[in-house]
Amino acid sequence: MTELAAECDVLVIGAGAAGLSAAYEAAADGNRVVVIDANARPGGQYHRRGVKDPPYFPAGTTDAQRWANIATYMGWQAYAADLDGDLVVVRLRGDERHRNDLHAVSTRVLVVATGAVDRQLAIPGWQRPGVMAGGGAQSLIKGSGVLPGRRTLVTGTGPFLLAVTAAIVQAGGEVAAVIEANQPRRLIRHAAQLMPTGLMKSGEALKFAAILARHRIPYLTGHRVTEIHGAEDDAAVASAVVHRVDEQWRPIEGSARTFEVDCVTLGFGFTAQLDLLMQLDCEAVQSADGGLAVCVDDNQMTSVPRVLAAGETTGVGGVDLAAVEGRIAGIQACHLLRTDGQRTQPDSKVMTGLYRRRGHLRRFAKALALSFPTPTAWVAEQTGDTMVCRCEEVSLTTVLEARDDLGATDARAIKLLTRAGMGWCQGRMCSYTVEGLCPGPTSVASQKAAANRPIGVPIPLGAVAKQGRA
Amino acid sequence: MSDPLCTVVIDGRPVQVSPGMSVAAAMMSTGLRAWRTTRHGQAPRGLFCGIGACFDCLVMLNGEPNVRACLVTVEPGDAITTQGGATND
C-alpha cells in the first residue's frame, strides 16, 4: 500500500460526488489535500465504475492539473476521529486485505462526506439469501457486472426503486414487478417545492417510465412486500408475498399476491453514515425523511470548528446536491486556511450560484422525502419470529417482550436487554426498525446515540498490539 | 468487462472471473447465493447491503476469516472459502 501522509491541510473522508468536489475546491490554493475512501475505486456509490474511462470529475471540477495535486488513498476506512488542539486526528484502518494496517492523519480542516447506506426495515424472511438492499444490488451490477438474481422483485419506496429496476434490466436481468409502498401521486401536494429541479428530473422519470413499459414491468403503488419465503429444502428466496397497504403501510386483508422470484430488493430510503461526525459530537437534527442529519451552516460547517460535512451526511438528497455541497465545503476549507492578511471573500457570483442551486436541490429532496415517507407502526404487527437484528438473530417477539414486559423505552435499553444492534453491523441494519418499535416518536438524542459508534469498523487485536509496540 | 479473465479458487474449485469484480460478485457469478452460516441459527447468509455496512457477506479469503466479500476486489489466485458450511444455490 502507498505510504500515507501523516498530516495535511484538508482531509476529505469519502471519494464520492461530495468528497471529490470538496477536494477539488480545497486544492485551489495549493493546499495539501488528502482524500480517503474505503472502496477500491473513487466515485462513491453513484459512480461505481465511472472513474475508469473517462475519469469521473463532478460538474464544475474539470481542471486536470488541480486533480494531479490531490492525494487519493483508496482502501482505507476511517474508523475514529477526535480533536487535538487546532487539529483533527482521523484514524484509519486498511482494507479487507490489510486489516492490520492502522494509520492516523492529522488535518487542519476535515470534510466528512461519508454518504449513506440503504435504510432497512425488518420483514419476515428478509434474512434469506437472495434478499438484498436495493443500493447493494445496484452496486453489484454497476461495480462487478453481476446480477443479484435471475428474477427480481424490486420493493420499498421512493424513486430509487426505478433506478434499481433500470440497472437490473439494462444488465439483462428480469424484474417481476416494482412494489412501491407509497402513492407517488402525493408528489402533487409538493409540486411547488419540486420546481425547478423537478423539471430537469422529469426527463429521468420519462426514461424510467419507458423502461417499465418496454419490459412490461408492473409498477404496483400502495403495495408492500409482507413475507419472503424460501423453498422447502433451501433457505434462499423462492417467492415473496405482496399486499395492498393503507397509508400507514398496514396490509389490506384479502389483497395478497405471490411472486415467484429468486431475488428481492429492499429499500426504504437511506441512512447517512454519521459515525465520525457523532464521535466529534457535531450537532444533528432529524431531517424530512425521519433520518438523522448533521447540522451545517451556509458554508457546510458543522457545530465543531474546522469540521465540515457535505452530501448525504447533511440530509439525504442525491448525487447532484452532494456535488454542490462538496464544492461549497471545499471553497470554505480554503477560506478557513487563509491567514487573516490574505483572507479574501470567495467570488460572490460563484457562491450565489452554488447557494441557489443547493437551495433548489434541497427543496426537491425534502419534497421527495415528504412524498415517500416510511412509517413504522406496522412493523410491530408482523409475525413474532420476524428477525429484527440480523447479526444477533433477535426476533420481534424478544424485542417486544423487552419493551412490554421489561419496560424498555428506548433503543439503548432494547439493545442492552436483547442484543439487538450489538452484533457485527453495530445496528446499521436494525436501528430504524428498533427505533420504530420504541414507544413514542423517535428523539434526536436516541438517534444520535445509535449513530455514535466509538469504533466504526472492527480492528484486529493484533493490529492494536502492533501499534502499542510501535 | 472486456479484461481477460483471471482464476480464483472457490472452495477448492478453480473458477474464471473478471478482474475488478468483488469477491462477493465472483462467488455469485458461479451461482453461489450464500457462503457463511450464522452463529446461533446456523442460517445461511450471503450478500445483503453490498457496500460494507451489514457484515453478512463474511468469507474466508486466503486463510483470513471474516473478510467482507463485498469490499474486496478479486486478485488472481485468491483462495475463497465459504465459512462454517454454507449452502449452495
Strand order of the largest sheet of chain B: 2-1-7-5-6
Which architecture of the largest domain in chain A would the CATH scheme give at its second level? 3-Layer(bba) Sandwich
Number of domains of chain B: 1
Sheet with most strands of chain B: 5 strands, mixed
Beta-strand residue fraction of chain B? 25-35%
Low-confidence stretches of chain A: 50-54
Question: Helical proportion of chain B?
Answer: under 10%
Cα end-to-end separation of chain B? 25 Å
**CATH class division of chain B:** Alpha Beta
Query: Could you please say which CATH topology of chain B applies here?
Result: Ubiquitin-like (UB roll)
| Tally of alpha and pi helices of chain B | 1
Q: How many helices of chain A in DSSP terms? A: 14
**What is the distance, rounded to the nearest whole angstrom, between the alpha carbons of the first and last residues of chain A?**
19 Å
Helicity level of chain A, as a percent range? 25-40%
Helix/strand-derived category of chain B reads mainly beta
Describe this structure in words.
The complex is a heterodimer of chains A (470) and B (89). With 470 residues, chain A is of the alpha/beta class. Chain A has three domains: 7-117 and 271-343, FAD/NAD(P)-binding domain (3-Layer(bba) Sandwich), CATH 3.50.50; 120-268, FAD/NAD(P)-binding domain; 377-439, BFD-like [2Fe-2S]-binding domain (Arc Repressor Mutant, subunit A), CATH 1.10.10.1100. Helices cover 31% and strands 24% of the residues of chain A. Chain A has helices at 17-26, 64-68, 134-144, 160-170, 191-194, 197-214, 275-279, 319-337, 348-371, 396-404, 411-418, 431-437, 444-451, 461-469, and strands at 7-13, 33-37, 70-74, 76-84, 87-94, 102-112, 116-118, 131-133, 151-157, 174-180, 219-221, 223-231, 234-244, 257-260, 263-268, 270-272, 284-286, 292-294, 307-309, 387-389, 394-395. In chain A, the strands form six sheets. In chain A, strands 1, 2, 3, 4, 5, 6 and 19 form a seven-stranded mixed beta sheet that branches. Chain A has a five-stranded parallel beta sheet with strand order 8-15-9-10-11. In chain A, strands 12-13-14 form a three-stranded antiparallel beta sheet, with no helix packed on it. In chain A, helix 1 (17-26) links the parallel strand 1 and strand 2. In chain A, helix 3 packs parallel to helix 4 (160-170). The model of chain A is unreliable at 50-54 (pLDDT under 50). In chain B, strand 3 (36-37) and strand 4 (44-45) form a beta hairpin. Chain B has a five-stranded mixed beta sheet with strand order 2-1-7-5-6, covered by helices on one side. Mean pLDDT of chain B is 89; it is low at 85-89. By secondary structure, chain B is mainly β. Chain A binds chain B through residues 38-40, 45, 77, 95-97, 99, 117-118, 127, 129-133, 135-140, 143-146, 148, 234-236, 273, 390-393, 423-425, 428-429, 458, and chain B through 1, 18, 20-22, 24-26, 28-29, 33-34, 38-41, 43-56, 58, 61, 64, 66-68, 70-73, 87, 89.
